[in-house]
Amino acid sequence: MPKKKTVVVLFTYGGGMRGVIPARIMSRIEEQTGLRMAQMVDVFAGPSTGTILNTALNIPDPKNPSMPRFKAAHLVRFYEQEGIKIFPQDRFRDFRAFVHDFNNRTMKIGQLKSLFRHGHYDPGYLSKCLYDLYGEHKLEDSLKSLIIPVYNIDSRQFEPLQEQGDTMDTPVHTTNNFVDGGGHAVWFKNMKHGRNQSSYDVQLHDAVLASCAAPTYFPCQHFAATPPGQKHPKHYSGIDGSIFDNPCISYHGAIRQHLDADTNVVMIILGTGYTLQSIRKDEWNSYGGLGVVDPVNDLPLISILFHASESALVGSFKEELGDNIYVFNKSIAGADEVTDNDQVPSKAIDDASPQNLASMHNFAEKIIEENQQQFDRLCTFLKNHAQDIDSKNEKVSFFEKTKRFFGS
Predict the structure, then answer these.
(1) How would you classify the pairing of strands 234-240 and 178-179?
(2) What is the dihedral of CA 237, 239, 243, 244, to 10 degrees?
(3) CA–CA dist 306, 228 (Å, integer)
(4) pTM for this predicted structure
(5) Distance, CA of 378 to CA of 387 (rounded, Å)
(6) Residue 203 phi, psi dihedral angles, 5° rounding
(7) How far is CA 10 from each of CA 122, 130, 233, 243, 272, rounded to the nearest angstrom?
(8) pLDDT digits (tens, 9 = 90+) for 308-358
(9) How far apart are CA 126 and CA 133, in angstroms?
(10) Interaxial angle between packed helices 354-370 and 72-86, expressed in degrees from 0 to 180 and rounded to the nearest 10
(11) Per-residue CA distances from 6 to 193, 316, 389 (Å)
């Protein structure tokens, strides 16, 4: 009986500066195996800071295009060196955002609207950093399958679809009566495994910058991309893929349809720290209508909405993949109450302070330490999987050379 084909999927969560945590875990995997992540993983997925990491690990080395340009350790240093410039310390950012919002609701003074810049960080330096990492590379250049999730907030540039039998355009976008108007999730994919292999024509810099455009931190990223099989580009106004993406969503919504039913899927999930807190009913009821979205209360409703779909799908996700899931993550929900700040990083995604960087390093090491057997087992599995990939590539190469030799 033929051996089932194994596909290894890596999902890396979003979390801004907390990307140091999965970067450090991947660095430890590379140290223990002696291999690069792109030599061991078939499909890279995940939003926001996760897609910064995934994309960089798939950039080909200009001197050896079959190998990645960056090690995971390079990306740890990337956050350490560039983080404070991407998220410069600014005690008045929240205040400017408040004044901007108050002005929009009441006074509507044009000068104030311009002066207070919406409370966003300037995306210019992040844009420069991503360009330094990816250059002019497009999505189709990734070494392995790469999925970049982006939420497109504006679909007015799309052509309305026609229902079967209609002679006029429908007033909204619909497909089999499912409304496709307004904003919607977009998977920018370069799929090199399984069925329906295809790629968007899009600059990596643009797609990743959009996936990192966290609401209230960065403005949306407007860019052009051409979907597979189409000749003309479409325009997207993208915000953070974390709006909708998580391991369960990626697997069910973006990956599974490309794989044969008997494919053996192994999924590695690298977290940036769980932040969702439990809320007692009396506490929830005390918030009132605005309190559930108040930053003073840690934005409880928004946090719930970010995690709700994952909690709804995790049961079927675990049932389908069984023991083929490796999760490396732990909670930082109580970070504000913990006195040992060397062990628990800040929940803030924009804390690039040296103290928080040290905390994130320690946190990553703690995750590995608490899951040491699983970590060792994963490294052994990945090393063996890389050898299988090399063996298959050698067979394909031999076949191609033989085919050319005989001219058939």
Answers:
(1) unpaired
(2) 50
(3) 29
(4) 0.86
(5) 14
(6) -70, 135
(7) 30, 21, 29, 19, 14
(8) 889 899 999 999 999 999 999 999 976 555 445 457 899 999 999 999 999
(9) 11
(10) 150
(11) 11, 20, 10
